[in-house]
Amino acid sequence: MRLSDETRAWIEKASEFPPGDNDGLLGIPPVAGEKPLADRLRAYLATAFGAEWSDALERRLVAEADEILDKKAARDGSLEAWLRDRAFRQHCALFGQRPFLWHISDGLKDGFSVFVHYHRFDQANLRKLTYTLLGDWLARAKAEGNTLRYEKGRELQQKLEKILEGEKPYDIFVRWKPLAQQPLGWDPDLDDGVRQNIRPFIKAGVLTHDLSKILKDKDRGNDVPFAPWYDVFNGERRNDHHTTLAEKRAAREAAAKRVEAAK
Questions:
Q1: What is the per-residue DSSP string for 108-167?
Q2: Could you tell me the residue ranges of all domains in the chain?
Q3: Quick one: which of 16, 28, 69, 190 has the fewest CB in 10 Å?
């Protein structure tokens, strides 16, 4: 590949970073044997800034993010507090309320909290989050006798289980796909976009920033007559629609029979 010397220098520098995360699940508290997210982020920043890195620079970076995106200084300017309380909201603002990093939490300040990388957040990783990471957290809370942490963590686990199953209203609905092609459970197609795929998590109330405004019941304009839901919605471009797992499975079976009959 024809690259400039400067580009090659940056590629070489990037190779010095600590190993990347293997699943895109980044716990803010330490879970399942992994370090807390603040410590992992510091390791990257220390490598990126080299000799310039210091506690003062860390505080300055956090303060600049607050000033630019929140227009005010925070009471707690630590990296830990920024990640826990403000990073996701600021990330949403920066990316037009279409985040590719999602912050999932049980709602407690000292409770279970994790950032997930949406582009890698497939069914296997949601299952890992629900049963491995959160399962480890629940086991520790139970062993420590921390009833509140256990109960809130268990509530979050139950909500994630509903998203995994994908029964309405925790299903993904994509209006440009026929019923037979709608996802079964948490099986997102990245090409369908953040707004379609994040809906179950907004409905379940597990995100730390309110994104409900992006869930428009319907979009402007009208669908084309050959759109799969044109007759059902009278041409409206509706998004707030739910289908059951049974309906989708029946549609898939019918579609498979039609394909078989056509052979």
A1: -TTS-EEEEEGGG--HHHHHIIIIIIHHHHHHHHHHHT-HHHHHHHHHHHHHHHHHHHT-
A2: 20-262
A3: 16
